[in-house]
Write a structure and sequence with these properties.
This protein is an all-alpha fold. Helix content is 69%, strand content 0%. The chain folds into three domains: 28-425, no CATH class; 447-540, Tetratricopeptide repeat domain (Serine Threonine Protein Phosphatase 5, Tetratricopeptide repeat), CATH 1.25.40; 552-669, Tetratricopeptide repeat domain (Serine Threonine Protein Phosphatase 5, Tetratricopeptide repeat), CATH 1.25.40. It contains 30 helices and no strands.
Length: 669
């Protein structure tokens, strides 16, 4: 008997009677479809978990410190939740950044701290779990968009689960904001599509609530105000009026979020520094835009060939390009070609057209084309846009190398996979390559030393990376492990060498000069320390850390009036800076002690001097309490508060705060 070709088999299937199925058969087919979906979801979830399973024992790394272990609001746990939802994202640390409002992920960190303080493993577990859920939800959304087709959603979700570009997001606890934002956007899209198909009001309500949660995760959720209506246009027969009606909850959620955000976030976009985004230093607008387009080309290359992954690409890793440079022109042509295709195929509701538009929309806010953001490059910024790449690649695999049989979701899982062996085989090969790369890159994210030690070799001309490495090896947590003075000095000298490289790359690098001052202070080279701090402050007069640390040396050298001036300035610049508050208290404590001693030597002015001394001790108490409120785990603040109470004769409070200091110290051990 002659073997039928693929086309002949499909033609025969098309000729089969398509009469209405009996209730029993329909039920069996429905059960088979659901069983197949569940199996595919398990495959996707398993893949997503396995590729990131080696991150579960990782430590805090990179930006984790600023929002978790070094954030005084996060460390309050449950009691800090009201403050988290009423302050900016970076509030609670010694940095000034009043431009972001992302309370949801920070609230999660606070709850995790409440359950298990200083336990990064819990944070990594949560990241992996929500990433797994995101991959499964992505599969569900794409299945809904493609009317039951499971092959393309399966391939796209598997590619998304394994793609190495996501290592920064999943392996860095701080990037929970990225994970939760996409997770809730996908869910909001599902319920919006369900409403468009079934017209149930509960779906409208759920879509609005979920979209609001996406906003609380990260502001880039606003791009989905365009993405979800696009999905309705491309994947449903909805008319313009229906699309608008389905989008009303999304619009309401957007307005509510923006109103809340405007009350909390400072006006303006904040100052973008050249060390964070080299585009800031390019004054010619056309050249700056050309460089932004060049970086977009780098993003495209990283999606296609994620071979060299880096945690930092700031000044001066990427060299400034000219309008005539091939790297810019190639990127421009690629993006123009994509845009042209998307426009020409828009009315045909081509899935590639949708993927391109989705990619452009979700990348727009972080592209530096419309406006400058806080960085010129970040692999985490591709987390949401990468959905488009994975979807387009999945469609390409299914179209270029179609399976021998059409997608039949009524088949058993084993038979379905065997009949999709060509596209699934290609997917498997790509996913394996991705997985090996992802698993290997995860190891670099184990801790700061492994990350910076690896990436400094990849981006040696990044001023940031030189600073990060120096900052880490000279940190108190690291140097406390060093037992002999010779090794300690060599470590400090190594850090100074990397800081010197950083300032050679970027001469006006305030952070690097501040760190030089810190290390020279540790080495008791006070003149060099003061000079470094003064340089840092002259470059950035609003840098509270430099001002506070500069004042520390002034305090140690008994220049108390000058020290108070800079401590006060640091605290004024950052009202959440607990060290600055404690240092102000210390100066007033010294003033109080000095006046007390003067009173003993000057009987005629004794009462006046004692009254002035008491006034300063009360100011010291006020600021020590502020420091404790900002950092409830500060043992030194409790001890100094105890001493200050003793100085004014309040033995009860002196004993109380001494006891609290002892308790916290025991708990830390």
């Amino acid at each position: 008997m002659k073997k039928l070709t693929r086309k002949e088999k499909i033609a025969l299937q098309a000729q089969e009677p398509s009469g209405k199925l009996s209730a029993g058969k329909e039920k069996k087919l429905s059960e088979a479809r659901n069983a197949l979906r569940r199996v595919l979801m398990i495959f996707i979830a398993g893949m997503a978990f396995l590729v990131y399973s080696n991150t579960l024992d990782h430590k805090y790394v990179l930006d984790d410190f600023g929002v978790i272990p070094e954030n005084n609001i996060t460390k309050k746990g449950i009691s800090g939740l009201p403050e988290i939802f009423s302050t900016t994202y970076r509030a609670g640390t010694n940095l000034i950044d009043n431009t972001l409002y992302r309370p949801l992920s920070k609230a999660m960190f606070a709850l995790e701290w409440e359950m298990a303080p200083n336990t990064p493993a819990l944070g990594h577990w949560m990241n992996v779990i929500f990433f797994v859920l995101t991959c499964v939800v992505l599969f569900s959304l794409l299945s809904l968009c493609l009317s039951g087709n499971l092959l393309i959603p399966f391939i796209a979700s598997m590619l998304f689960a394994a793609h190495p570009i996501h290592t920064e997001v999943v392996a860095n606890i701080k990037s929970r904001d990225e994970i939760m934002c996409l997770f809730f956007c996908l869910l909001a899209a599902i319920f919006t599509l369900l409403y468009a198909r079934e017209a149930k009001v509960k779906y409208l309500f759920l879509s609005g609530v979920l979209f609001f949660l996406a906003f609380l995760s990260k502001e880039s959720a606003i791009t989905w105000l365009a993405v979800i209506p696009l999905m309705l246009y491309f994947f449903t027969p909805s008319k313009a009026s229906q699309i608008f009606k389905s989008s009303i909850p999304l619009i309401i959620a957007t307005v509510i979020f923006l109103m809340i955000r405007s009350k909390i976030v400072s006006a303006g976009t904040g100052v973008v520094l050249v060390e964070d985004n080299y585009l800031v230093g390019i004054k010619d607008l056309l050249v700056r835009e050309a460089n932004a387009v060049f970086i977009l080309g780098v993003y495209l290359k990283q999606l296609l060939f994620p071979l060299t992954l880096i945690s930092d690409g700031s000044f001066n890793h990427f060299k400034q390009v000219k309008l005539s440079d091939f790297s810019f022109l190639a990127s421009l042509i690629a993006y123009l070609a994509m845009a042209m295709y998307a426009i020409l195929r828009f009315k045909k509701k081509d899935i590639f057209s949708f993927s391109i538009i989705y990619y452009f929309v979700t990348l727009s806010l972080v592209s530096n084309v419309l406006f400058l953001i806080g960085t010129n490059y970040g692999e985490r910024l591709l987390y949401m846009p990468s959905v488009a790449f994975c979807l387009a690649l999945a469609v390409a695999i299914s179209k270029i190398l179609p399976s021998e049989f059409p997608d039949q979701e009524s088949l058993s899982p084993g038979l379905w996979l065997s009949r999709q062996k060509i596209p699934v085989g290609i997917m498997t090969a790509i996913v394996l390559l991705y997985s090996v790369s992802t698993y290997a890159r995860n190891k670099d994210w184990h801790d700061n030393l492994s990350l910076y030690g690896t990436d400094i070799l990849k981006v040696p001309e990044s001023a940031h990376m030189q600073f990060y490495y120096a900052n880490h090896i000279s940190s108190d947590d690291e140097v406390v492990k060093i037992k002999d003075s010779l090794t300690l000095r060599k470590t400090y000298e190594e850090a100074l060498m990397h800081l010197e490289i950083a300032t050679d790359i970027l001469p006006r690098y305030a952070d690097a000069y501040q760190r030089k001052g810190f290390i020279y202070h540790k080495l008791k080279e006070y003149d060099k320390a003061l000079k470094s701090y003064e340089t840092s402050i002259s470059i950035n007069p609003t840098f509270p850390v430099a001002q506070n640390n500069y004042a520390n040396i002034l305090f140690e050298t008994q220049r108390f009036d000058e020290a108070l001036k800079y401590f006060s300035s640091a605290f004024r610049l950052n009202p959440h800076y607990s060290h600055a508050a404690a240092n102000i208290a210390s100066v007033h404590g010294v003033y109080g002690e000095g006046l007390k001693q003067q009173a003993l030597q000057d009987p005629q002015r004794k009462d006046e001097l004692l009254a002035e001394s008491h006034k300063n001790f009360l100011l010291a108490i006020e600021y020590f309490k502020k420091a404790i409120d900002l950092d409830p785990e500060s043992v030194s603040s409790y001890r100094m508060l105890s001493v200050t109470y003793a100085n004014i004769g309040d033995s009860q409070n002196a004993a109380l705060y001494a006891s609290k200091a002892d308790k916290i110290q025991r708990e830390k051990k």
